[in-house]
Amino acid sequence: MAGGGLETVRTGALTTVQDLGRPGYAHLGVPRSGALDLAAHRLANLLLGNPQHAATLETTLTGCAVRALEDTVAVVTGAPCQVTVDGRPAPWGQPVRLRAGAVLDVGAATHGVRSYLGFAGGVDAEPVLGSRATDLLSGLGPDPLSEGDVLPLGSPPPPPLAGRAVAYAAPWAAPPRELVLPVSCGPRDDWFTPEGLRTLRTGTYRVSAASNRIGLRTEGPALTRAREGELASEGMPLGAIQVPPEGRPVIFLADHPTTGGYPVIGVVPPWALSAAAQAVPGTPVRFAPVGAGAHGAGQGCP
After folding, report:
1. Where would one find coiled-coil regions in this protein (predicted)?
2. Are residues 159 and 210 part of one domain?
3. Domain at 269, CATH number
4. Residue 229's pLDDT band (boundaries 50, 70, 90)?
5. What is the DSSP letter of 183?
6. What global pTM score does this model have?
7. Model confidence over 124-134: pLDDT tens digits?
8. How many domains is the chain partitioned into structurally?
9. Which residue range forms the structural domain that includes residue 248?
10. E strands within the chain?
11. Does residue 2 register a pLDDT over 70?
């Protein structure tokens, strides 16, 4: 529809277009990117009857506001927040019909960090390498939203099945007081002393305010090294726990670099990263190793 889509009224701290990302290009130096809380992204599309790869808007802490330039249906998932349409309260976690000209305002997160705005048909930004995701590290995909930006929408799907919104309206559980991350140890846990490995297993960290879409940074006790120097650059998977020289673990998220030279003491599985994406600064973090690592059973990460 000519002149349709969405107009950005308020950008909030950071609002980006996200989908399932662009996996399969690490050999070209391109991160996967995509929604940090994939469960919330997929839920928004489920509630609207969209395919799961349809693009949504990911907000950070302070929400955003958009004006509908055509009739559409929207839903807000992820971090709970106040939702209004033209200043009147609207439900969070349930589809809302927007008439052309209506302003949907997604307020600051009351729990968690990132909310997701889904629209019937998805945000139809220009795809790059098969994805519409904004990648803050490589600069691929749409720029973060600015006031006045206009985003097209895709063709809406048939209406969602009756009762779908009721059945799936509010899956959110308040974020835990402590973020416990499972860790498969290695491949470079042998670069750390037994004391450093015990610190990873028993120490309590906190989410740093310096965290972003590239990585969740932590504050807490340093992990002592058994080797000096650095590695030659090697591949870095999603969820890698890289330990820079100061010794505080960094968990790589969707926009992480594909290579690096700091040792990786372990890897957090992708399914556990949605919780990490919603952990506010100051949240206690504990690592729960589940594998023997390079030292072997009884001597490594566990």
Report:
1. none
2. no
3. 2.40.100.10
4. confident
5. E
6. 0.91
7. 999 999 999 99
8. 2
9. 179-289
10. 6-10, 16-18, 56-58, 64-68, 72-78, 81-85, 88-90, 96-98, 103-109, 115-119, 150-151, 179-185, 205-207, 215-219, 234-235, 240-242, 250-252, 259-260, 264-267, 284-289
11. no
